[in-house]
Amino acid sequence: MAKGNCNCGAVGFEVNLELTDVYVCHCSICRRATGSNGIAVVVVDNQAFRWTQGEAQISTWKKTGADWQTWFCRECGSPLPGVNDPQRTFIPVGLLNDGDAQLKVAHHIWVDSKAGWEEIGDAGRQHSEGFEG
Ligand SMILES: [Zn+2]
Ligand SMILES: [Zn+2]
């Protein structure tokens, strides 16, 4: 079980799973969305995910011409978990309050697009584009 919330605390959620694998996306869209080197997420089955509060505070934005959408708190702007395919929820790992001790970076995706200043130094597998399989 892991819990998380946005910076202002309006939006909260919980996951009924032991979380282990972190995926880091380095694509230019995720970099702009966070203003950083990309975004680190855990991917969970929708059944294991539940909002605990603040669903009315969630805004979304879809990028025109791309299969990409972001969810964020309309009050504080923190990125939030989102559903990018019908079965799975993508949770930004920085939102987790606890239960993150077992987490480890397993995969880096869109590595060919990463920022010129970024050096990847962990043992996660590097994929030049999106993750398949
Ligand atoms: Zn917030
Ligand atoms: Zn990305």
Quick structural gist:
The protein has 133 residues and is mainly beta. 5% of the residues lie in helices and 39% in strands. The chain has one helix and twelve strands.
Radius of gyration: 14 Å
- Tally of helical runs: 1
User: Any low-confidence stretches, pLDDT <50, length ≥5?
Assistant: none
Strand numbers in spatial order across the main sheet: 9-10-4-3-11-12
Look up the CATH topology.
Metal Binding Protein, Guanine Nucleotide Exchange Factor, Chain A
- What is the CATH architecture assignment? Beta Complex
Mean pLDDT, rounded to whole units?
Answer: 93
Percent of residues in beta strands: 35-45%
Give the total of beta strands: 12
Number of domains: 1
Listed once per kind, the bound small molecules are: zinc ion
Q: Could you state the order of secondary-structure elements as H and E? A: EEEHEEEEEEEEE
Briefly note the structural class of the backbone. Answer: mainly beta
Shape: globular
Please give the share of residues in helix: under 10%
Question: What is the CATH C level class, in words?
Answer: Mainly Beta
Largest sheet: 6 strands, mixed
How far do the termini sit from each other? 25 Å
Give structural notes.
With 133 residues, the protein is mostly beta strands. It has one domain (2-117): Metal Binding Protein, Guanine Nucleotide Exchange Factor, Chain A (Beta Complex). 5% of the residues lie in helices and 39% in strands. It is built from one helix and twelve strands. It has one helix at 28-34; strands spanning 2-5, 12-15, 21-25, 39-45, 49-53, 58-62, 69-73, 79-80, 82-83, 88-92, 104-109, 125-126. The strands form three sheets. It has a six-stranded mixed beta sheet with strand order 9-10-4-3-11-12. A three-stranded antiparallel beta sheet has the order 1-2-5, with no helix packed on it. It has a three-stranded antiparallel beta sheet with strand order 6-7-8, with no helix packed on it. It is globular and about 40 Å long. The two termini are 25 Å apart. The model has no long low-confidence stretch (mean pLDDT 93). It binds zinc ion (2 copies). The site of one zinc ion has 5 residues, from helix 1.
